[in-house]
Amino acid sequence: MNPLTFTLKTSLQQRLDLSALTPSTLQDKSLSDINALELPYGNRLLRVDAVFDVVGDDAQQIIFNADCNKLDHIGAGLTGGTIEIQGSVGAYLGRDMRQGTIKVFGNTDVYAAAGMRGGEIFIQGNAGDFLGAARASERQGMRGGRVIVTGNAGHRVGDQLRRGIIVIEGDAGDYCASRMIAGTIAVFGQAGRYLGYGMQRGTVVLSRPPAHLPATFNDCGKHELLFLRLLGKSLQYPNCRIPSTLFSAPVQRFAGDLATIGKGEILVAG
After folding, report:
1. What is the pTM of this model?
2. Upper half-sphere CA count for residue 68 (Cβ side, 13 Å)
3. Based on CB atoms within 10 Å of each CB, which residue in 18, 177, 202, 205 is the most buried?
């Protein structure tokens, strides 16, 4: 069987909602049925075959050959299978996904992994603002699973993160881990200003001191934490560039945000 492959064949002027193109919704559908599906495009609908050339027959392996930041909601509600994207994509990648794997060989726009509950997302590029964060009117962000970003991430990474792991090999923008409820965020580049603003619980691991830390974090001194070795093992993934020694050295621990319940921690290597 060959992966079900969607190749973008036209330029887009409006945003296109691809939430209907997941393994569970396409399973047992013929190519003619898939081509006839209608996708929200601005204030109207477009057939799949008006946008993509579609080949293949294995809906459990979906490939998008597309480099367009107007392709939104890819992998929304994913419950299994794999989605691979060759190129950059738009907003809400992996929204509310439960299981499965999404791989992006490019950049993503805002709100990737919003509402994610399980599975894995690998972004071989940069992620936009609000990675794993709560959407407007929601009280919780990402609630499970794992997100790996090999490049940089924008502002508000993990805003109101409830559960799960976010790993950023590059830099993170301002307000990383803001209002964080629980979970783990690891940043191995430079974290921006106001790190952990309003943080309640959870753990942030840094390879270098942040650009700014709110005064409401308490310096608890240096510690050698055995659980970090277990955490280091859980963070490993194919082609991981994170040095394993990072999790065996003593860390500087900061507790906060003391303006809230103050049960979060920021661990700075070195």
Report:
1. 0.91
2. 23
3. 177
